[in-house]
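Posting this for the archive.
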Amino acid sequence: MTDTGTDTVVDDGPILFFDGVCNLCSATVQFVIARERMQTLRFASLQSATAARLLPPLGVDPSALESLVLLQDGQVSVRSTAALLTARHLRAPWSWLAVFLTVPRVLRDVVYGAIAVNRYRLFGRQDACWLPSPTLKARFL
């Protein structure tokens, strides 16, 4: 795995994978970027070559677009857990949302799933993935 550069990509910090054509998901990434305490998160769409290379060996299907996926410290988190662990990277008061990690995952994921299933209908979708500005491009894989 080292000769492909995969170890380096994973070890360079957390990666938040998102549905690149979903307006809600793209807005969420922009929200995170604007409120992040330290610029440690990196981003990749679930439709990207990076997702296709990194996620299947970790048991995640990148074509399952209804979930945020956070790859952090060698651990993969999905759905509400990924969203709430991402909140830990934000400035207060947004980081306080992580308190909801104490709510049983099954309950959190019911709410998350209801939004995820209806996200295109409620928020729309784009024909292509959102492209970051030149200043943010280095944080996107």
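The chain has one domain: 2-134. Residues 80 and 106 are 9 Å apart (CA to CA).
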